[in-house]
Design a protein that fits this description.
The protein is built from 20 helices and 19 strands. By secondary structure, the chain is an alpha/beta fold. It has an eight-stranded mixed β-sheet, sandwiched between helices. Strands 1-3-2 form a three-stranded antiparallel β-sheet. A three-stranded antiparallel β-sheet has the order 18-14-19.
């Protein structure tokens, strides 16, 4: 663990060689205490637990104060989740195997006369992916609420919304060798360890690597290797099957007096960190290898944001899929990240906002996009893949399987010419519904839409011919036969209808609205 920022009153008694034993004792104590997400929800109650996820700890604090009998999970929650002092006797009871001295040696607590002070944030984490359900514990630096002050620039962030999103986006396909670039507390590397033979996790911060290696050891994960260095320097000359990164993509003015947080600021001008990651991925992916990342990209007065990132992908010679989830105007973007650093209002806030807006103005930046990026190194015989999408509405959780299915579906349909594709038999996915809207009294619908209930929840407008073809996709007839029947029904030329319909049907196959029928 990183050196504590708060000095302990208990002398350290163990050497580095004792750390595996101490971490094993901690794991045992956390397990006996049932320090899990489910148990904390029970201890706190639904309302306080929900408030805590929003960054408000007072309801949780009040709920813990109502607990009369000793509860190890409640003590650990007070100390490591809420970041509050806990009674020394209670902490000793909650960590009977590790003991107070062991917790001090690991850098978890500082001990006073009657209370223990938390030095880290240590909380349970649970999830379910294609490999099953798991419960972990993850350590990181104390947050702003516990510190009572703006974050230090070397702050190591725990699991937040962005890291949860990226973890859920991971394809989860078996990988011999995976790279987690800029691992932070290690969350992406730990997820990748479930489907990878070996994971290399890098970071520019030794403090972050200390946390990441601690988290791997605490959860019994042994196939992750940690390397210190900037960007791709620690893996020069190596190529990977899978690359995942939540890079420090926040656009920050490179001027004196503006804090540069290691966990979010890449030290580059504007959005150059994302461009650099894309260029580096091209040099470090094996043929057919995939990279997934989150990022920001600038909209400038003379350039669309999606066109900008598409240009980086083109220069890198990679396949690319960009899903833009949000666009913020320059002022709102600046305000969001100034508050994230702990400055809320007043003269200092105004000074920082001015620096941000000056920086944007110099480059003609009007707004900033945020989203998900998938890159693929082109393998021989595979049709180039390119998608640029704006999807601002709600989407499902754990989209990795959906993304993997999209890649497979695209590769399949793109490998077929129109004659071959027309022989395919397709079925409508079970989560797809059709919406029809009528003007009062009209027999025919004025608007028809297809909508996905899960995944990316896309919606597509339908014309009469496409609606008729999709409606007949029950796996019995080929697409070609359905098109022929619909052309007769609509009294239009069969070749013209097929030429009109097939591109849309291919798109529906790619995104999962239509799927291949099982062979009978």
């Amino acid at each position: 663990m990183p050196h504590a920022r708060l000095n302990s009153t208990v002398d350290a008694r163990s050497k580095d060689a004792d750390r595996p034993d101490l971490i094993g004792r901690l794991r045992d104590d956390l397990g006996v205490a049932r320090f899990t997400v489910t148990r904390l929800d029970e201890v706190l109650g639904a309302g306080p637990a929900a408030a805590l996820t929003r960054g408000h700890r007072v309801p949780a604090h009040r709920a813990l104060d109502l607990i009369i009998e000793f509860d190890a999970a409640a003590v650990l929650a007070r100390l490591f989740v809420l970041g509050l002092p806990a009674d020394i006797a209670d902490v000793a009871l909650a960590l009977p195997t590790l003991e107070l001295a062991g917790a001090v040696d690991l850098g978890l607590i500082g001990v006073g006369d009657t209370t223990c002070q938390p030095l880290v944030d240590l909380r349970p984490y649970s999830f379910t992916d294609s490999w099953g359900a798991a419960d972990w514990w993850l350590a990181s630096d104390l947050g702003e609420l516990a510190l009572g002050a703006p974050l230090p620039e070397d702050h190591v962030l725990g699991v937040g919304g962005a890291s949860l999103t990226l973890a859920g986006l991971q394809l989860g396909r078996p990988s011999d060798l995976t790279l987690d670039l800029g691992t932070g507390c290690g969350i992406q590397a730990l997820h990748a360890s479930r489907f990878s033979g070996r994971v290399v996790a890098t970071d520019i911060s030794q403090r972050a690597l200390d946390y990441a290696s601690f988290n791997a050891a605490l959860n019994g994960i042994s196939n992750v290797e940690f390397r210190l260095g900037n960007m791709f320097e620690p893996v020069e000359g190596e190529r990977f099957d899978f690359l995942v990164t939540n890079p420090p993509f926040v656009i920050t003015p490179r001027v004196q007096g503006v804090p540069s947080y290691e966990y979010r600021d890449g030290g580059r001008v504007g959005d150059a960190i994302v461009a650099e990651v894309i260029a580096g991925a091209a040099k470090h992916l094996k043929p057919g290898g995939v990279a997934q990342l989150l990022g920001n990209w600038e909209y400038r007065s003379d350039e669309d944001g999606l066109d900008r990132i598409a240009g980086w992908i083109d220069v890198a010679g990679l396949d690319g899929w960009v899903i833009e989830r949000e666009v913020q105007d320059a002022a709102l973007y600046a305000q969001t990240w100034i508050r994230d650093g702990g400055t809320r209002a007043g003269a200092e806030f105004d000074r920082l906002e001015g620096a941000w807006l000056d920086d944007f103005e110099r480059r003609g930046v009007t707004s900033v996009g945020f989203g998900y990026v998938l890159l693929r190194s082109r393998a021989k015989g595979v049709v180039p893949f390119r998608r640029l999408e704006r999807l601002a509405g709600p989407v499902g959780a754990g989209l990795g399987a959906q993304i993997a299915a999209t890649l497979d579906a695209f590769d399949w349909q793109a490998s077929l010419d129109d004659a071959e594709f027309a022989r395919a038999r397709l079925v409508v996915a079970p989560d797809v519904t059709e919406e029809r809207h009528y003007w009062p009294g009209d027999e025919h619908p004025a608007v028809m839409n297809l909508r996905q209930g899960g995944g990316f929840a896309r919606s597509y407008p339908l014309g009469t011919a496409v609606a008729a073809v999709v409606g007949a996709c029950d796996g019995e007839l080929s697409i070609g036969a359905i098109c022929a029947a619909v052309s007769e029904l609509l009294e239009v030329d069969g070749g013209e209808l097929r030429a009109e319909v097939l591109p849309t049907i291919r798109e529906f196959v790619t995104v999962g609205i239509l799927g291949r029928a099982e062979a009978s």
